[in-house]
Amino acid sequence: MELNLLLTFFVSSLLLAVAPGPDNIFVLTQSAMYGAKSGLLVVCGLCTGILLHTSLVVLGISAAIVANYYLFLAIKIAGALYLLYLAKMCLFTRASAINLGQTNSLSAKKLYLRGLIMNATNPKVIIFFLAFFPQFIKDSSSSYAVAMQMLIQGLLFLLASFIVFSLFAILASYLTNMLKSVRVNNIINKVSGIIFIVLAISALFFSN
């Protein structure tokens, strides 16, 4: 993969990791109420789940993508439409303040497992991977090339998620008041929606 393409993917992953969702909200609530250690344990579980989903995508999809050009194109178009759907949800769903007073503390093992289970059992994650990853594939000439690109993408996405979620965990006490603001969460939603639209347009009009 080209360096500029990797950089674009990584920056997009960082921005998408910031978007409000059950994963980072759980990290924030645990960290804000019980300290950064609790949040970091959840982060480790979430990242393990990302690794599992990446493995499924790499092993089960790469060969199928290469086998048929039209299948590859169909996946990219379907992915673009899904990204537009996510954009619509972000742009037209009014955010609410994150409630930091309804989450109970858990043991270290339960915190890790909670993060793992929340991510690994969420079918929307693998659907998102199938929508997001193919937009950055530039060489689909062989299953090995596609598999390696998806593996790199998965690892970069994991790294981006780990960085963002860990920062949330460490800085949660400083972010608490800001995250209670409906206005701030609406701004985050709007930015996320714009990112999804840009990715969708790129897939529809600038794909190979």
What report would you give on this structure?
With 208 residues, this protein is mainly α. The chain has one domain (3-14, 22-205). The chain contains 8 helices and no strands. Helix 3 packs antiparallel against helix 4 (69-92). The protein is globular, with a radius of gyration of 17 Å. The protein starts with a helix and ends with a helix. The model has no long low-confidence stretch (mean pLDDT 77).
Profile the largest sheet: none
Described by the principal axes of the CA atoms, the overall outline is globular
Rg measurement, Å: 17 Å
Which stretches are low in confidence, meaning pLDDT under 50 for 5 or more residues running? none
What structural class do helix, strand and pairing data support? mainly alpha
- What is the total domain count? 1
Helix content: over 70%
Distance between the termini: 14 Å
Counting DSSP H or I runs of 4 or more residues, the number of helices is 8
DSSP strand count:
0
Order of helices and strands: HHHHHHHH
